[in-house]
Amino acid sequence: MKSDLRKEMMTIREMCDAFEVTPRTLRFYEAKELLSPERVGTKRLYSKTDRARLALILRGKRFGFRLEDIRQTLDLYDRDDGNSAQRKRACELGVQRLAEMEAQRANLDLAIAELKAELTDAEAKGLVPRRAA
Fold it and tell me: Distance between CA 55 and CA 93 in Å, rounded?
């Protein structure tokens, strides 16, 4: 049975290649208790669960979630014996994060419009060279 499990396991190099991350990243996530690879001597072996968790970690990071929120959400899967609580929490975090991102975008759009107006005014006064359209 153990040899069958090994076929499902990936080394740190295989994980890095599959997910385009560095060994340092994987060790960091392990230190933050986001991943728990099996240890065989000095070797780390990653299971299907570790691979699924890493995919969710990377997705959460891309969305701008805090690592602690990601860890707590991932841990809900183990406690709930399934993913209903995990999915609910992920949706709650997603709604919050989307609102934050939309507010950031609105602020950025406003800042861009103001800067363009300032530069247009400066160009009209001959203070700066004209920008390419």
Answer: 17
Q: Are residues 129 and 72 in the same domain?
A: yes
Locate tokens 């979630």: which residue?
Answer: 65
pLDDT digits (tens, 9 = 90+) for 111-127: 999 999 999 999 999 88
Let me know whether 57 and 3 are in one domain.
Answer: yes
The answer to whether residues 45 and 110 belong to one domain is no
111 vs 117: CA distance, rounded Å: 10
Whether the pTM exceeds 0.85: the reply is: no
> Can you give the residue range of the structural domain that contains 72?
64-133
The answer to whether residues 57 and 95 belong to one domain is no
pLDDT tens-place string over residues 72-103: 888 887 665 667 888 888 899 999 999 999 99
